[in-house]
Design goal:
The complex is a heterodimer of chains A (332) and B (447).
Chain A (H helix, E strand, L loop, with lengths): L3 H32 L5 H11 L3 H18 L1 H10 L1 H23 L2 H30 L6 H29 L2 H32 L1 H9 L1 H6 L1 H22 L7 H21 L2 E3 L3 E2 H4 L3 H28 L11
Antiparallel strand pairs in A: 1-2
Chain B lengths: L3 H40 L2 H35 L1 H35 L6 H30 L4 E4 L2 E4 L2 H5 L4 H29 L5 H35 L1 H8 L5 E2 L3 E8 L4 E8 L2 H7 L5 E2 L12 H32 L4 H9 L3 H15 L4 E3 L3 E2 L9 H36 L14
Antiparallel strand pairs in B: 1-2, 3-6, 4-5, 7-8
Helix pairs in contact in B: 1-2, 1-4, 1-6, 1-13, 2-3, 2-7, 2-13, 3-4, 4-6, 6-7, 6-11, 6-12, 6-13, 7-8, 7-10, 8-10, 10-12
Classes of the chains: A mainly alpha (332), B mainly alpha (447).
């Protein structure tokens, strides 16, 4: 049996892993959804084909993240989910719309196809926005004021930009020709918006939240961490340069924008986790206070140790199977 | 009158009813696909591959609907029933967690290879991916049914200040009603999927689809239905006996028994009246209920009056049970008659094909009715006899619950209509597009 403190750290690390993997993986396919054209059928097919084999498994990381919260920190789970009741409902509607549209569009009558494409796009947009909105409210400790809802809206736009960025990076990597060229343009634009978003959040967050301020400016370790936001900014700039280069010659390094975006995601996420650790409900509940019964968590741990490596293994395998430029999707 | 509790219950009922429709199909349909693919690998006959390709499309659509509605369920515990996880989380959490870890990821990942990877992996690996998806759906059912059964017949726990703690995981997972419930559900899925397959295949034949594939899938699905429908009756009966032992108040509601009696009759029809605590318009077979449940004509059945305030609402359980059994009997008859005709004449007359089309979604109705019996039958408790549902509800404003309820209901209605339309559209489409390709997929086409 492990100590409660150790379990709290372990399960929050797992939860963090699930969240960041979710943000990267479902991030790129939601981004592709956001970028989906509402009228141009052939390129829509290719774009959807690029995420077809993956989106379902990507979404499962969200279920895992929420599941881990529910298992390891049930009190926090219910505080957070009740506080976010409406945005969660909207996110679920968005996820439902996106998930079913993916399948219906391929099977419905041709004249409905465009409608399902729009549902796909709309569902992806709603999902991305509400996730960002919830993140904003979370950062604001679920405070209900005009300022916090404005901040949450800003954060929603930021997440849309971030997912568009990673989605465009994915398309640059997986597609060719016209789609790839447009993706480079989208990528550049969303790179700029995401940069502004990250800047805004980094400035606003310590200003409004005293705890976050101490974490970043008040401790000895914070001096060591201050370069991180700088590295993040530099990455945005490098990204822009890479995109300009790719615009002239797409044959080399088409995987770079995706990789750089993943690094940006990791840095931002690390910053966020560091800002609030060890709180699971900001300012209210720490991971140590919210922990569920240790014996139940120990039982769960056997499964985690045995299964998570297997999950990572066959996920990598599936990416290897569909490696390379996207081909047409057929049930074959 | 519309308070958060009532609205939350309606919302949960709506979500769970919508969700269950799709896994009910996919659990067994996945095994049908394994069979088709396996036969193709063994015989190389193109017809098996065509059967696979047609049904894998329907599987993909059904699976997607199951996934998205399932995600909604996983959030609802926290949004609408926070008390559930706070008090039962130590038991329910790991069971749900194991479902995600052992089933969700596996089926979702291999689904990609199963649907789109046939040309990219070896035939053997593709069949393996199909098999893994089937195992995944079944494992998923295993964990969910384990949790559901535990809520009905809790064992292996200790209760401290209203919070449950696990004591013996083996007892928790394999609680007394689990086995019955699990097999009852697997058979329900097999029957739902085979009647769906039979209905759609019959529809294709009626639309003059003279290819070999719809005839083949008709035969396979009717064979499965004819074998399993009677078996379901048997397993259902065993399940009923188990419920009689552990949840007598549920059985009393199913049978419409108010006063404890020896030699209770089996009510074929009645209208239970909870105010006057009696039945109207009874049509009964004397002593049969006692005989079935206790295997003695004079056996004692406890009446609802012994559980006043602690028994479920009678009408929905009573009628739900009759609908489930009624459809079940109909399924047995239809399966046996059509399978027999097929064996004798190797084709079905138009009226039998039409009957099968009418029965396409009979499995859904029986499964829903069965779930209502079992879930409403547990009321007013969340954990049988220990935790009442009203203790667990959220305290978000009722308008929020109402708003989201309207959103879900609208979307579900649209999706259900679109799903059913698309099924029949796919079938009609197959008449034209699924041409005979006499050449099977060559080994060389695989990478």
């Amino acid at each position: 049996m492990f100590s409660a403190e150790y379990l709290a750290l372990l399960y929050s690390a797992l939860m963090a892993l699930a969240i960041i993997v979710y943000a990267v993986l479902d991030g790129y396919d939601l981004g592709v959804g956001i970028l989906l054209p509402g009228n141009n059928k052939p390129s829509a097919d290719t774009m959807i084909a690029s995420i077809g084999p993956f989106w379902d498994a990507n979404e499962t990381w969200l279920v895992l993240a929420v599941g881990l919260a529910l298992i390891a920190f049930p009190t926090a789970h219910s505080i957070i989910l009740q506080a976010l009741y409406l945005p969660i409902a909207f996110m679920l509607l968005g996820l439902i719309l996106r998930g079913v549209a993916f399948d219906f569009r391929a099977k419905a009558k041709t004249r409905y196809r465009q409608t399902w494409d729009r549902c796909f796009k709309l569902g992806s947009l709603i999902t991305a926005f509400t996730q960002g909105y919830m993140l904003g409210l979370y950062v604001m400790s679920f405070e209900h004021s005009l300022a916090s809802h404005l901040f949450a809206t800003l954060s929603g736009v930021g997440v849309i930009a971030a997912y568009t960025l990673i989605g465009a990076g994915w398309l640059i990597m997986k597609c060719e020709g016209e789609i790839q060229n447009s993706a480079i343009r989208w990528c550049r634009l969303s790179n700029l918006i995401a940069l502004l978003g990250v800047l805004a959040v980094s400035v606003v967050n310590p200003l409004i939240n005293a705890y976050v301020q101490t974490r970043w400016f008040g401790t000895e370790i914070s001096l060591l961490l201050l370069p991180l936001p700088l590295i993040c900014m530099v990455l945005f700039v490098i990204q822009d340069r890479v995109l300009v280069k790719l615009n002239d010659n797409t044959s080399h390094g088409c995987w770079l924008p995706f990789a750089i975006t993943v690094m940006i995601f990791l840095l931002c996420f690390f910053g966020l986790v560091y800002s609030f650790f060890p709180y699971v409900v900001p300012g209210t509940l720490t991971i140590f206070e919210a922990l569920a019964d240790p014996s139940a968590l120990t039982f769960m741990l056997y499964g985690v140790v045995l299964v998570v490596p297997a999950i990572i293994g066959y996920t990598l395998f599936s990416y290897r199977v569909f490696w390379g430029k996207t081909q047409d999707l057929s049930y074959y | 009158m519309l308070d958060t509790l009532l609205l939350s219950r309606i919302q949960f009922a709506a979500n769970i009813s919508f969700h269950i429709l799709f896994p009910t199909i996919t659990i067994a349909l996945a095994w049908f696909l394994v069979f088709f693919k396996f036969r193709y690998d063994r015989t190389g006959e193109a017809v098996w591959l065509r059967a696979y390709r047609f049904w894998v499309k329907i599987f993909a659509l059904t699976f997607a609907l199951g996934v998205v509605s399932g995600i909604t369920m996983s959030f609802q515990f926290g949004t609408n029933w926070p008390g559930f996880m706070e008090r039962i989380g130590n038991i329910a959490g790991p069971l749900l967690g194991y479902e995600v870890l052992t089933a969700f990821f596996m089926e979702a990942t291999f689904l990609g290879i199963m649907l789109f990877g046939m040309k990219r992996v070896s035939p053997r690996l593709h069949t393996f991916a199909t098999l893994i998806v089937a195992i995944g759906t079944t494992l998923s059912a295993f964990w969910i049914l384990s949790l559901n059964s535990w809520l009905q017949t809790p064992t292996g726990y200790t209760l401290v200040d209203g919070v449950f703690y696990p004591k013996d995981w083996f007892e928790i997972i394999f609680n007394p009603s689990f086995g019955y419930r699990f097999f009852h559900m697997l058979l329900a899925s097999a029957l739902t999927a085979s009647f769906l397959m039979a209905g759609i295949s019959a529809y294709r034949l009626l639309k003059e689809d003279h290819k070999h594939a719809p005839k083949l899938t008709l035969k396979v699905s009717l064979t499965v239905a004819a074998l399993l429908a009677p078996m379901q009756m048997f397993v259902g009966d065993l399940h009923g006996l188990n419920t009689f032992e552990h949840q007598p108040q549920k059985v009393a509601a199913m049978e419409g028994v108010w006063e404890t009696e020896q030699g209770a009759p089996l009510l074929l029809f009645a209208i239970p009246d909870e105010q006057q605590r009696t039945n109207h318009f009874e049509i009964a077979i004397p002593k049969l209920a006692s005989l079935i449940l206790t295997h003695e004509a004079e056996g004692e059945i406890k009446g609802l009056n012994e559980f006043k305030g602690e028994h479920p609402p009678v009408k929905p359980v009573f009628f739900g049970f009759r609908i489930m059994v009624g459809i079940g009997v109909l399924m047995i008859l239809v399966a046996l008659v059509t399978r027999y005709t097929l064996w004798k004449h190797s084709t079905l007359p138009t009226w039998q094909l039409k009957a099968l089309v009418v029965m396409t979604f009979s499995g859904w109705i029986a499964t829903l009715a069965g779930w209502y019996v079992t879930e409403i039958g547990r009321q007013p408790f969340m954990v049988s006899g220990l935790v009442k549902i009203e203790e667990l509800v959220t305290n978000v404003p009722s308008e929020h619950v109402l708003l989201t309820l309207i959103g879900y209901l609208t979307l579900y209605a649209v999706l259900l209509a679109a799903y059913i339309k698309t099924l029949f559209y796919t079938a009609r489409n197959a008449v034209q597009v699924e041409e005979y390709q006499t050449t099977p997929v060559q080994g060389g086409q695989y990478v």
